[in-house]
Amino acid sequence: MRGKKDDSDELRRFLREKPWGPFLRDVDRQLTEEVTLYCIGGFVLKALYDIPRVTADLDYVEVLPKRTAEKLEKIAGQESALARRHGVFIHYAGPVEMPIEYEGRLQGLDLKMKHVRLFVLDPYDLLLSKMLRNSGKDREDGKFLIKKLGLHFQTMQDRFRAEMDWASNRAYHETTLELWKDFFVE
User: ω before 123 within 30° of 0 (cis)?
Assistant: First the structure.
């Protein structure tokens, strides 16, 4: 179900720095059981690809086991003591349209923690999640990721068409996909 672990230099550096490293270690200390999050958004871009912007939240689309969601919110949510102390928080991003097979491409982050397990989207799934929202920040994030990793439009288009034929506003997203084609240098 889940792919390889990431132990890149960017991730190791990210986990040493404030605020995220100390915050996640504090969350880990307060949890009493393993909690797994499927992460999306700016946190992933910062942790793995060192995007040159800050993010105050770790967005996730899935928490396992599901019964831990409420406890996680109390420990690390926007109104938590840890959020006030560190200035960052963990946030459920709500239902997000994702490629059907995204879980099989998730990449585990090697946090070396007892309770916190983070899995992140593969780059093309992350790019599609940004494209579907298509805010100004999402477009800038998409351009950054495309350039940083040398991603290919055809791969993104193929995945969208193969795994997201069920998406709401399909015609709108097809138009957005064509507009995002300009972000690629091929």
Answer: no
